[in-house]
């Protein structure tokens, strides 16, 4: 008895397109930056990871210039954060002597895209393998499918 999943093709198709897009996108950025650095003037594509910086800033990192949540010195979150939870958090986040929140730059942006490509490709392979299987044939389910090994004995 095979589980019939109506959206199987759509799920696999979307994961395939996401993996292809991330792959070509990341490869294009890396190739462009390497070619420009090797053969021409230094005109790399330096894209600042604004969203990642905003997330760090919302958690108290003050070096990016946003004014939101824990970084806003006039907000109620900042005042409550100093006394209620994690005393010393803002000092720890903004000190350069530790690696709690390192400053994120364009190199991190490229690396995060490469990691996203790897994760999406891995997910695609695992989901495709799980959804395209002709029945599980896993050890707990083999009796339901009439499937057994010779070493299982009679019945």
Automatic annotation (TrEMBL):
GO terms for biological process: photosynthesis. Signal peptide: none annotated. It comes from the Eukaryota. InterPro entries: PSI_PsaA/B (IPR001280), PSI_PsaA/B_sf (IPR036408). Gene3D superfamilies: Photosystem I PsaA/PsaB (1.20.1130.10). GO terms for cellular component: membrane; thylakoid. Pfam families: PsaA_PsaB. This is Photosystem I chlorophyll a apoprotein A2.
């Amino acid at each position: 008895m095979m589980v019939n999943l109506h959206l199987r093709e759509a799920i696999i198709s979307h994961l395939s397109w996401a993996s292809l897009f991330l792959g070509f996108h990341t490869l294009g950025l890396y190739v462009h930056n390497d070619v420009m650095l090797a053969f021409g003037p230094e005109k790399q594509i330096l894209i600042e990871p604004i969203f990642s910086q905003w997330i760090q800033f919302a958690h108290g990192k003050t070096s990016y210039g946003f004014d939101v949540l824990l970084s806003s010195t006039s907000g109620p979150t900042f005042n409550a954060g100093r006394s209620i939870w994690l005393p010393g958090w803002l000092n720890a986040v903004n000190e350069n002597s530790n690696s709690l929140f390192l400053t994120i730059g364009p190199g991190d942006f490229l690396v995060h895209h490469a990691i996203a490509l790897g994760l999406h490709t891995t997910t695609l392979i695992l989901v495709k393998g799980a959804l395209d299987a002709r029945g599980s044939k896993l050890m707990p389910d083999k009796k339901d499918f009439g499937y057994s090994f010779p070493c299982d004995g009679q019945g």
